[in-house]
Amino acid sequence: MPLGHIMRLDLERIALEYVVPCLHDIGFCYLDNFLGEVVGDCVLERVKRMHRDGELADGQLAGPSRGVAKRHLRGDQIKWIGGTEEGCEAINFLLTLIDRLVMYCGSRLGKYYVKERSKAMIACYPGNGTGYVRHVDNPNGDGRCITCIYYLNKNWDSKLHGGILRIFPEGKSYVADVEPIFDRLLFFWSDRRNPHEVQPSYATRYAMTVWYFDAEERAEAKKKFRNLT
């Protein structure tokens, strides 16, 4: 049986039997050992090279402070990429797999109809104790419905290095702590159901995030933006 066929069956099974039920039941889920060591290493090396070459810029705040960098609120350095850039073949492969996973979730995502996503945001917390204060990715209906984060941190020890992503599920009495360990892929709803924070990081912390858009909400958000401008 061709490898591509096996991968398709596996991704479809994971989407339908794990990702969809978890999103509906608790609002988030993660998959470990998603790419495997070899391909994961290729993604990590490309991200490290971007960091070394000075390609990352300070993350900006959205909302009322849009376009402003405030290190005490958000301490990451970022770069947006499409995945088709030179040397980004492993990143493009990763994005293709995530796209397929979300595609297989299909109509089972409730009211959402996903047909596009953002570029990938490469993010680095440089290990100087910065994090990202509690926030919601999409508090005002900009179209983002699913946040997907791929982590790239080998030998990460949260007791020493911090950097946990803490989710505060709406209406629940518990929090969910997600360690940013190598080759872990996290999904969660992007709206007010999942306020979250990145706790201060004391070692260099790498991640890559993409956001999937609900077609109707995205079109409405673009229409509002055009009317404003």
What layout of secondary structure does this protein have?
Elements: H1 3-25, E1 28-31, H2 37-52, E2 57-58, E3 77-81, H3 89-105, E4 114-117, E5 120-125, E6 132-135, E7 144-151, H4 158-161, E8 165-167, E9 176-178, E10 184-189, E11 196-198, E12 205-214, H5 215-228
Antiparallel strand pairs: 1-10, 2-3, 3-5, 4-12, 5-12, 6-11, 7-10, 7-12, 8-9, 8-11
Give the count of helical stretches.
5
N-to-C CA distance: 54 Å
Estimate percent helicity: 25-40%
- Using DSSP, what is the number of strands? 12
Instruction: Classify the fold: give the CATH topology.
Output: Jelly Rolls
Kindly report the name of the CATH homologous superfamily: q2cbj1_9rhob like domain
Mean pLDDT: 91
Walk me through the structure.
This protein is α+β, with helices and mostly antiparallel strands and 229 residues long. The chain has one domain: q2cbj1_9rhob like domain (Jelly Rolls), CATH 2.60.120.620. It has five helices and twelve strands. The chain has helices spanning 3-25, 37-52, 89-105, 158-161, 215-228, and strands at residues 28-31, 57-58, 77-81, 114-117, 120-125, 132-135, 144-151, 165-167, 176-178, 184-189, 196-198, 205-214. Strands 1, 2, 3, 4, 5, 7, 10 and 12 form an eight-stranded antiparallel β-sheet that branches. β8 (165-167) and β9 form a beta hairpin. α1 (3-25) crosses α3 and α2 crosses α3 (89-105). The N and C termini lie far apart (54 Å). It holds the Pfam family 2OG-FeII_Oxy_3. This is hypoxia-inducible factor-proline dioxygenase.
